[in-house]
Design brief:
The protein has 426 residues and is of the alpha/beta class. The protein folds into 2 domains: 22-210 and 414-422, Rossmann fold, CATH 3.40.50.11720; 214-411, 3-Layer(aba) Sandwich (Rossmann fold), CATH 3.40.50.2000. The protein contains 18 helices and 14 strands. It has helices at residues 2-23, 34-37, 57-74, 86-96, 110-120, 134-142, 156-163, 166-173, 184-192, 214-228, 248-261, 277-286, 320-326, 345-349, 364-372, 384-393, 395-411, 415-422, and strands at 48-53, 79-83, 101-104, 122-128, 146-152, 178-181, 200-202, 237-243, 266-271, 291-293, 311-313, 329-332, 354-356, 376-378. A 7-stranded parallel β-sheet has the order 3-2-1-4-5-6-7, sandwiched between helices. The longest helix has 22 residues, at 2-23.
Length: 426
């Protein structure tokens, strides 16, 4: 089965490159640094203690506390971080800069993986969440490099998919040194797939351990003042964060309904992917809203009038906590369309009431904890306008829900320290 998988992957490689070219029509970065994807990276001048792989923005943000802890232990330049997407790459560079070495992840082809490992020579490997690459796992095991799947999750849907090739999945998981599952349900699914019992443990979700940068809070306070005239202005502000295609129309329609009873309300609309910024901005304008771009506001200290637009387009990267800090209510995207949702713990950590749609299969544990504690509200496209209206009108209710969500986050911290102990880095 492994041989068939590898042959198919080689045959598909030209089509993968064509897909990169296709995606580069919207984001030029997809045309760049192809050599890294084939393992052609510059060997580091000193040994790499840990290689951390995170696919895109979400996994990168989740991995930041872990990466910073590893840098603190081993020193700058001794942690190698890989991503798959340009947006993930940008987050690594903006958040960590020269503290780490960074490249795109190698494709899961035997010669490519061997080339990458020969050049980077990591002592340990940590892969975030659900990246099961058979040739990579086999290559690290063959070289005696311990590989940990951190913050591991496996949805029922993924379990059904992998179960179709149960023998291959079992052999692949046998090459993993340890699986640090987010929840007992995830751990059980990994065991059902064939992971050795002794190598699976429940560590919790390290997304609970994210710290909120003070600079982001200060930027959020400035945004709030710029949008409302003063830090605690009377203007209602809600954010639709990490939105996907198919959601923006729903959110703009909800905002139109909200404006019928709250004429000064502001929607901060923040698409998940930067290549959609312009399209979403045009959509909002064509829908009849007055629109301002975050990029046009400049930085704190920049002069300008109080924002009067009905929609603020969040066309910036790395400022999500600032947007949350400026808002009264947060909706988290990828949940009104079948994407699986995004990180609802970020706004909850700031004490915001969190709204999300029915498609939350990537964040089941966080969703359930927030719902059980009444720290979050699951909505539909039809119920969103009324939920917004009620929350934005009732400050006491907002604080009750927000405080409950913040308590959920605080009560579930500690996964990072357990993970560091497991991989021998505490």
């Amino acid at each position: 089965m492994r041989a068939l998988y590898t042959v198919l992957l080689y045959l598909l490689t030209p089509f993968v490159l064509l897909r990169l070219l296709w995606r580069s029509r919207e984001l030029q970065a997809y045309r760049q640094r192809w050599g890294e994807r084939f393992g052609f990276v510059a060997p580091p001048p000193e040994p790499i203690a840990v290689w951390v792989h995170a696919v895109s923005v979400g996994e990168t943000l989740a991995a930041l506390p872990l990466i910073r802890a590893l840098v603190a232990r081993h020193g700058e330049g001794r942690v190698w971080v890989t991503t798959t997407t340009p947006t993930g790459s940008e987050r690594v560079r903006s958040a960590l800069g020269a503290q780490v070495r960074h490249s795109y992840a190698p494709y899961d082809l035997p010669d490519v993986v061997a080339r990458f490992l020969a050049r980077v020579r990591p002592a340990k490997v940590v892969v975030m969440e659900t990246e099961l690459w058979p040739n990579l796992l086999r290559a690290t095991a063959a070289r005696g490099i311990a590989l940990t799947i951190a913050n591991a999750r496996l949805s029922p849907r993924s379990l059904r998919g992998y179960s179709r090739v149960a023998g291959f999945a079992r052999a692949t998981l046998a090459d993993v040194a340890h699986i640090a599952a987010q929840s007992e349900a995830d751990a059980q699914r990994f065991r059902a797939l064939g992971a050795p019992e002794a190598r699976v443990s429940v560590m919790g979700n390290i997304k609970f351990d994210q710290t909120i940068p003070e600079a982001q809070l200060a930027l959020g306070a400035w945004l709030r003042e710029r949008c409302s005239g003063r830090p605690a202005g009377t203007r209602s502000i809600w954010i639709a964060a990490s939105t996907h295609e198919g959601e923006d129309e729903i959110l703009l329609a909800a905002h139109r309904e909200l404006l019928r009873t709250d004429a000064q309300a502001l929607l901060m609309l923040v698409p998940r992917h930067p290549q959609r910024f312009d399209a979403v901005g045009r959509l909002a304008e064509k829908s009849g809203f007055s629109v301002q771009r975050r990029s046009a506001l400049g930085a704190p200290g920049a002069e300008g009038d109080v924002l009067t637009a009905q929609v603020l387009l969040g066309d910036s990267m790395g400022e999500m906590y600032a947007y949350f800090a400026a808002a009264d209510v947060a909706f988290v995207g990828g949940s009104l369309v079948p994407v699986g949702g995004h990180n609802v713990l970020e706004p909850a950590a700031l004490g915001l009431p969190v709204l999300f749609g029915p498609h939350m299969h990537n964040f089941v544990q966080a969703r359930d904890l927030l719902l059980d504690a009444q720290g979050g509200i699951q909505i539909s496209a039809n119920s969103l306008p009324e939920s917004l209206r009620v929350l934005l009108r009732d400050e006491r209710r907002r604080h009750e829900i927000g405080d409950a969500g913040r308590r959920v986050v605080d009560a579930n911290r500690g996964a990072l320290q357990r993970l560091l102990q497991q991989i021998g880095e505490a």
